[in-house]
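Long-time lurker, first post. I've been practising inverse folding by hand and with some scripts of my own, and I keep getting stuck on stretches where the structure tokens seem ambiguous. Below is the full token string for one chain I'm working on. Before anyone asks, I'm not after the true native sequence, just a reasonable design that respects the backbone. If someone could post their per-position residues I'd love to compare against what I wrote down in my notebook.
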């Protein structure tokens, strides 16, 4: 599935004793993404404004919300370099779309995690696709409005199954979820991530650009799975303020 494709998303929080069984069933129907059956690691930094507006929009179920994050994909294959992006995740009613620009992995590695987010400079004659220029302009607008405040870093391991670039279904399993406030990552101190969910809990996310196939509906019914509006970012902020109640 094209990363920029508009789609509906459904999330399920799977307990430790069910996650591997469900993933094995998905693998019977969809190939492993990027030819990585063992999955790959992801590191994401999340940004908001000083009032944590996008967090509160999530809590109240605001129908139109955008959030900025950086994301680095660490391939399990030694010959592949990390792929890094600055992204806008846009939720509009029931549809979700991701707009992003690629950046050098070193740019994210070397930036001060506790500093406000800025975009890397580009050459005037840079031949990026028009969609990336539009995404960059949107990012610049949001950052200028104050949505550049560093909040949290989240680490996790992902197994992904995808029907292909022209396909209409993608299913991911995010496990080993950990988090840490970005303010604690300044300087030379090593990261000390905390668990984001319970032991062994896994987020299964289904992205579909059309009707969910019958085999997947049967799988959901077999295991009595119920979609949940699970947000990694919102869960991390709930850990920062345990009195805050999440929606969904």
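-- Answer (accepted) --
I ran through it position by position. Result:
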């Amino acid at each position: 599935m094209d990363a920029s494709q508009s789609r509906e998303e459904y999330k399920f929080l799977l307990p430790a004793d069910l996650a591997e069984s469900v993933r094995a069933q998905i693998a019977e129907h969809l190939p492993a993404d990027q030819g990585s059956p063992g999955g790959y690691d992801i590191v994401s930094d999340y940004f908001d404004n000083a009032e944590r507006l996008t967090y509160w929009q999530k809590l109240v179920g605001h129908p139109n919300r955008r959030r900025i994050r950086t994301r680095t994909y660490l391939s399990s294959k030694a010959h592949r370099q990390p792929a890094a992006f600055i992204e806008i995740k846009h939720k509009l009613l029931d549809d979700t779309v991701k707009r992003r620009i690629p950046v050098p992995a070193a740019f994210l590695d070397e930036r001060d995690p506790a500093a406000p987010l800025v975009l890397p400079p580009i050459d005037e004659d840079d031949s990026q696709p028009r969609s990336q220029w539009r995404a960059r302009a949107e990012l610049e607008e949001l950052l200028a409005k104050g949505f550049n405040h560093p909040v949290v870093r989240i680490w996790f391991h992902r197994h992904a199954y995808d029907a292909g670039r022209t396909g209409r279904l993608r299913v991911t399993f995010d496990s080993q979820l950990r988090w840490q406030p970005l303010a604690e990552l300044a300087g030379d101190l090593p990261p000390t991530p905390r668990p984001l969910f319970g032991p062994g809990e896994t987020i299964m996310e289904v992205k579909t650009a059309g009707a969910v196939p019958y085999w997947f509906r049967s799988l959901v019914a077999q295991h009595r799975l119920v979609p949940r509006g699970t947000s990694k970012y919102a869960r991390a902020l709930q850990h920062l303020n345990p009195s805050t109640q999440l929606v969904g």
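A couple of notes from the structure itself: Strands lie at 8-14, 40-48, 64-74, 83-92, 95-103, 149-162, 169-181, 194-195, 202-208. The chain has one domain: 8-240. Happy to go over any region you disagree with.
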